[in-house]
């Protein structure tokens, strides 16, 4: 990783991600009325990486409902995002849908016998739908870069396959996974895409019901307990909002009933979450009194 | 454990706890106005066990502030309440103040060179103060029962001592720990004691400021991510409130700004949390729209 | 696994192996003078599986010498043959060359930039050379069966690749690995192949020096401490000889200075080693006074 | 630990052990005829520490026979001498009698309802008997030093107690354990004490049968696979003899049928075994052709 003392370090394990400007910073807040506050690089697209897991979880729950939880748990993992130890102990069932193994299992559910291209199309269209923006696309260079270097994820997928938790050919599932992690979005697009989680499952801008209110609450709950890998407790303690980070430096945070927030700053802390992004969200939540844990 | 198919199993590893009536059930809700809704065995005292950890955490933070976090983390553990594996990996620093090892470390901070009797008196008086009820007492038989059989906790304490995380004599720290876990309270008393967490650090009944608003939020955050051991994700997903359980079958849950809730049913689920208690809280939260994750 | 109460269970995780006759039993002992004692199915070929790891270790040491130990350790693992947990703790370096991960790393050293077919040819020729029998061949159906189902090994290889411990394309290394495990040999051939280890690195039958005496001793030492996965202590305790087992039910055991022994019985014990094979070796060693731990 | 670049580091975790002269070195070899070769500080007493575990294992096997193996395993641990992780996974049963947990369990078997003083007397008399030297004694300062600082061992003992693997009061068992580890012996005494293991269970000097031949072989086997903690594979690979090390810097090594060897040099390597001691044994074994793995 390149050293960024005050901003954390930019992820370099996916070569393509290392090219990003470490000084970039963007923030967009959309409140219940649809008012948008945007600052910095709010219209620069970045690789959303693991933030895509919020949307694949939503999509998979829509497809198979609570049967999804036979393939993945919903407990915090107490270990880094790419740990394989827990899988051995728990016979191939990942702890939650937001660690890599869990997201791969969720992707496998979405794939479900279809061709990778179809499944990927479905995920992308779902993202365009919730964000109400058909221009959202996959950064193929990032996807290719991950595919060339994603040996750890390949290990996780093969390991789950050995327990029967992955049902499709490993390469198919991984192909879809690498591609949806490589979706590029701006903070503005991301904040729009998160609105249904802030407003009981309905996007106020489009009027579309994406999920039932209970499901929106539950996805928020999983984000709160598992959304920042082994820094989830820290994020809850400091920010007090459900959120999901990606190694591209983005974070989507939800203030239920109040706002959808997207922040982007590429430097990461030790747990792999955006360093400045978390600090910005902590300051914002405090100023606005948006913590879900009390005013 | 004795089999209670529909209610979970009563904890028997502390012999004295096994004597409890498995049919017991109590529930008390105190809302922002101080209105009390009580049902069932709401005035029967039970052993609060690990629920005491919420109050020792609050007390220790009041004594040493954020320096407490040098001795204990605040991340979910991803393992059972009495696991020792994590301690070896992380050199004696417990993951959070709500697993046994963490609560023992917090107790050691409170003890801090004093005599066990003094430290215990301080904890008990603090509990009486927040609950505004001087009649709250320790069940000496339960404390003695734990002291005779608490080898696992003794292992945890000695292990942390070997890393210097425990500073007082191990027997002193454990003595205080076993006794504060043996505090007996009714649902009514417990719900009263939790009000400061629901109302920005201030108990509306007494007007006492127990902690600053930010500290109340943060304690709630730790409860949400770590309050139910390896069932914390499940509790957040189903109930959607910060809460802390004890193996005596009690749960204290906080609806920030709205209510303090205590429930008691001795049968436990696999993760060691009250089975019916959780179900009751899930139904109540849903009915009242109190989930912190959205309406 | 198919139940064989008195004989252990035949491995079924490689479908092709499950077809073997569970009643089969063969034993061949070749002493220092070259006298051969053979019994049972001593001329029936079986899949040597992990016994091939003794020969790939020997070959790799011949190619790169002690530099091999930068890529693999030589300590017992304290865990099953296909565990991945240890790899995470030790950053991709397998504990020893006889667990699957270690043998895959050794195979990668042999491959070393060549085409899989060449590397495999080299391994097969080496086996034919030490056994002095050019008829030894690979069972392609077994190799194909492993290649279709070896997800766990694929996970191990990809995991090591993520740490840079595997240098060739994962599929190349695994292809060679699956094929050398699928070498089919009879007890007679296997006992002949082991003679250089019993006689200071030289095969008395051919007069060929395969390795230096010190290297033969050291390979025997690794067989003793690591040759039976998590049953290595048990094998040393009961049999008292260096040995290497395979899930095909074969065991190669070495009585230094005295004899090379091959036994085959497909039923496995819990640690994955031939049940009757171990019992036969225990009786034989006791009768002959061959234990390396004293008469 | 104090730095001794060329000799390893002297153990300091038991304060009393840190006082030893790091330059000390002693070596005694007693061959089958009783010829003694002695060099260096061969008559300076040192703390035998874990080497005592060989003799408590022998004593306990004499008392309860193979029933001992219900309380302790005999597989290498794949982890450091004081690891507690394995105990959680295997429900309180230590992997082998030579890691600390295992030796504590063996001590508990010897104690078996007696007073600590009696059990300790029995162990000491057994040591005097096998060494044929009634002057062997316990260094009380070392024992007291361990008792004051042995929190890790106390954690192990309490942890096993929670699973019922320790039957006596924890303090009793630990008291006996700390004291037998504090036995002080010279290399000469230690080499004499090991002779029964080199000669089929009989001490040629006294003619006493200490154990049956098979038991001597089996104890040697456990020493080979487990005698040097997580450096057991390395010791077998380099030295090729059954051996047991102690953090006092001593090693007892057995060349079956040939010699009993004791070496002492206080500097330890990373795995906690005497650094120069191992090197001296490697050179000696090579010179004499004593490796059990071939000439």
UniProtKB/TrEMBL annotation, chains A, B, C, D:
<comment type="similarity">
    <text>Belongs to the glutaminase family.</text>
</comment>
<feature type="binding site">
    <location>
        <position position="229"/>
    </location>
    <ligand>
        <name>substrate</name>
    </ligand>
</feature>
<dbReference type="InterPro" id="IPR015868">
    <property type="entry name" value="Glutaminase"/>
</dbReference>
<dbReference type="Pfam" id="PF04960">
    <property type="entry name" value="Glutaminase"/>
</dbReference>
<dbReference type="GO" id="GO:0006543">
    <property type="term" value="P:L-glutamine catabolic process"/>
</dbReference>
<feature type="binding site">
    <location>
        <position position="153"/>
    </location>
    <ligand>
        <name>substrate</name>
    </ligand>
</feature>
<feature type="binding site">
    <location>
        <position position="100"/>
    </location>
    <ligand>
        <name>substrate</name>
    </ligand>
</feature>
<feature type="binding site">
    <location>
        <position position="146"/>
    </location>
    <ligand>
        <name>substrate</name>
    </ligand>
</feature>
<comment type="subunit">
    <text>Homotetramer.</text>
</comment>
<dbReference type="InterPro" id="IPR012338">
    <property type="entry name" value="Beta-lactam/transpept-like"/>
</dbReference>
<keyword id="KW-0378">Hydrolase</keyword>
<keyword id="KW-0007">Acetylation</keyword>
<feature type="binding site">
    <location>
        <position position="177"/>
    </location>
    <ligand>
        <name>substrate</name>
    </ligand>
</feature>
<dbReference type="GO" id="GO:0004359">
    <property type="term" value="F:glutaminase activity"/>
</dbReference>
<feature type="binding site">
    <location>
        <position position="50"/>
    </location>
    <ligand>
        <name>substrate</name>
    </ligand>
</feature>
<protein>
    <recommendedName>
        <fullName>Glutaminase</fullName>
        <ecNumber>3.5.1.2</ecNumber>
    </recommendedName>
</protein>
<feature type="binding site">
    <location>
        <position position="247"/>
    </location>
    <ligand>
        <name>substrate</name>
    </ligand>
</feature>
<dbReference type="GO" id="GO:0006537">
    <property type="term" value="P:glutamate biosynthetic process"/>
</dbReference>
């Amino acid at each position: 990783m390149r050293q960024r003392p005050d901003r954390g370090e930019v992820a370099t394990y996916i070569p393509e991600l290392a090219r990003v400007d470490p000084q970039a910073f963007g923030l967009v807040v959309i409140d219940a009325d649809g008012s948008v506050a945007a600052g910095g690089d709010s219209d620069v697209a970045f690789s959303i990486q693991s933030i895509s897991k919020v949307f694949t979880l939503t999509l998979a729950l829509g497809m198979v409902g609570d049967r999804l939880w036979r393939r993945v748990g919903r407990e915090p993992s107490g270990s880094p995002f790419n740990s394989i130890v827990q899988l051995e102990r728990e016979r191939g069932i990942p702890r939650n849908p937001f660690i890599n193994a869990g997201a791969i299992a969720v992707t496998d559910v979405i794939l479900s016998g279809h061709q990778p291209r179809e499944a990927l199309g479905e995920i992308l269209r779902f993202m365009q739908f919730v964000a109400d923006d058909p221009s959202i696309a996959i950064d193929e260079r990032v996807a290719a870069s991950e595919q060339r270097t994603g040996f750890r994820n390949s290990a996780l997928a093969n390991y789950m396959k050995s327990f029967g938790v992955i049902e499709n050919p490993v390469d198919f599932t991984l192909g879809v996974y690498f591609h949806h992690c490589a979706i590029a979005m701006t903070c503005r697009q991301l904040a729009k895409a998160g609105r249904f989680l802030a407003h009981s499952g309905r996007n106020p801008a489009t009027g579309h019901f994406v999920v039932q209110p209970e499901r929106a609450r539950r996805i928020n709950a999983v984000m709160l307990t598992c959304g920042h890998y082994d820094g989830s407790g820290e994020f809850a303690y400091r920010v007090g909002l459900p959120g999901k980070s990606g190694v591209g430096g983005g974070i989507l945070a939800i203030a239920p009933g109040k706002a959808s927030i997207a922040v982007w700053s590429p430097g990461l802390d030790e747990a792999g979450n955006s360093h400045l992004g978390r600090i910005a969200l902590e300051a914002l939540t405090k100023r606005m009194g948006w913590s879900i844990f009390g005013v």
